[in-house]
Amino acid sequence: MTGSDLTGYKVEATDGSIGKIDNASHAVDDSYLVVDTGPWIFGKKVMLPAGTVNHVDHDEQKVYVDREKDQIKAAPEYDESSHGDPAYRERLGGYYGERHSAMPPGSAGRII
After folding, report:
1. Which residues form the PRC-barrel domain (predicted)?
2. Which strand ranges, in their side-by-side order, compose the sheet holding 62-65?
3. Domain extent listing, the chain
4. Given CB 3.0 to 4.6 Å as the disulfide criterion, which of 23, 29, 73, 112 pairs with 34?
């Protein structure tokens, strides 16, 4: 199942549903999910490192992550123009408590 298209899958945080996957990268050493946190007025897109994924249920089309909804909602907003920038990744890695290893090339885990 490596490299499966997860676009459209629902994202389940440890305390409930948080949104759906808008985009996913399966590139070697650069795996991440872009999650649309929903239609709420404060909804936004956030980037989750592949390392936050606990498991994927393809039958139910759900991705389970090891973060709470509030932490995901408060994450730095996804910036398509700078998501490859090392400074952005460092900030994101620091936010998720994955000291410098959140997503820089050579450190991110595979999604599935």
Report:
1. 3-71
2. 45-49, 32-36, 16-25, 10-13, 62-65, 53-57
3. 10-79
4. 23
- Give the global pTM: 0.73
Strand 62-65 and strand 10-13: the pairing is parallel
79: how many CB neighbours lie within 10 A of its CB?
A: 12
42-63 per-position pLDDT tens digit:
668 888 888 888 999 999 999 9
Report the SS3 class of residue 109. coil
Strand stretches in the chain, DSSP E: 10-13, 16-25, 32-36, 45-49, 53-57, 62-65
Q: Which fold has domain 10-79?
A: SH3 type barrels. (2.30.30)
